[in-house]
């Protein structure tokens, strides 16, 4: 991003992250396994990356807190409300594309 200072770049990137999280909250039909199979990351990855960033800065954030931030609710609630069992085809595609991710 030529010509943009570091602070503005960080603000833009943060806005993109917030928009991505909001979009995923609005699309619970997009199952994590489908996201993994298509893009190689899912909501859990985002929450792990958020926790990693907090850890790198010496901030206290639990795995549950980072997941709640990404999912917009406790993870167990989201799973109960929105997560369906993976089909054999989804599991096979995951095993093939992720190599044990």
Automatic annotation (TrEMBL):
Region (Disordered): 82-101
Residue ranges constituting the SMc04008-like domain according to the UniProt record: 30-95
InterPro entries assigned: SMc04008-like_domain (IPR023163), SMc04008-like_sf (IPR036810)
Pfam families hit by this protein: DUF1244 (PF06844)
Highest taxon in the source lineage: Bacteria
Protein's name in the database: Alkaline phosphatase
Taxonomic source organism: Methylobacterium gnaphalii
